[in-house]
Design the sequence.
């Protein structure tokens, strides 16, 4: 079963705008990760945030984690057409597996 | 360095047949995981192998099996294929910390 629910399911924006995606999960976690998938092929790791962290940055990406609300958000600033992809959050309880959410499809128009 | 490689990229089978999917991890990675992704869904965990031992198994029937070889490559086998097994099968490897996953491009399996 899917652990995470992502919101919105789909998002369309213009280049230069910011994109925010949210992820909710059900049980306590060790860490939460975000992945990007282009055209239904392999996933690419974007960023990992641990359960004792509240915010993390990587380039144009900003991730927040609220363990009390069991939620996370991914912000992509100054979006580009190349950011068009599906974005998935994934939660880890241990090192044995990741549980992925349902994904947000992001479309960035030039 | 080569990334995670999977073969074949596409496969068409009929119901009742069996299939073997192959995966080579990034050099130096000892952990391999398999995921199934049905169209429109997120990946679902099937197996994880670390140092040739099964370390985790998802909620999949016994028709699904896997193994890891001494060179850390891996095979996923599915017997008695059903229409519902049609999906993208993703392999991922990870380094010693077994946290961040590096994915291959997947094998698209169609069962007719």
Sequence:
């Amino acid at each position: 079963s899917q652990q995470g629910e992502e919101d919105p399911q789909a998002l369309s924006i213009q280049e230069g705008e910011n994109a925010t995606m949210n992820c909710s999960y059900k049980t306590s976690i060790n860490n939460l990760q975000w992945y990007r998938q282009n055209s239904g092929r392999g996933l690419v790791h974007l960023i990992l945030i641990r359960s004792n962290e509240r915010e993390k940055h990587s380039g144009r990406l900003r991730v927040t984690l609220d363990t009390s609300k069991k939620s996370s958000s991914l912000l992509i600033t100054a979006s580009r057409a190349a950011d068009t992809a599906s974005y998935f959050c994934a939660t880890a309880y241990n090192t044995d597996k990741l549980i992925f959410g349902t994904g947000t499809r992001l479309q960035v128009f030039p | 360095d080569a990334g995670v490689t999977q073969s074949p990229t596409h496969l068409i089978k009929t119901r009742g047949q069996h299939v073997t999917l192959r995966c080579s991890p990034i050099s130096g990675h000892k952990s391999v995981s398999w995921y199934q992704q049905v169209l429109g869904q997120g990946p679902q965990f099937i197996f994880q192998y670390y140092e040739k031992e099964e370390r985790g198994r998802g909620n999949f029937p016994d028709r699904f099996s896997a193994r890891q070889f001494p060179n850390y490559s891996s095979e996923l086998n599915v017997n008695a294929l059903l229409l519902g097994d049609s999906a993208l099968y993703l392999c991922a490897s990870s380094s010693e910390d077994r946290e961040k996953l590096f994915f291959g491009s997947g094998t698209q399996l169609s069962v007719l």
Remarks:
- Residues 72 and 87 of chain B are 24 Å apart (CA to CA).
- The two ends of chain B are 37 Å apart (CA to CA).
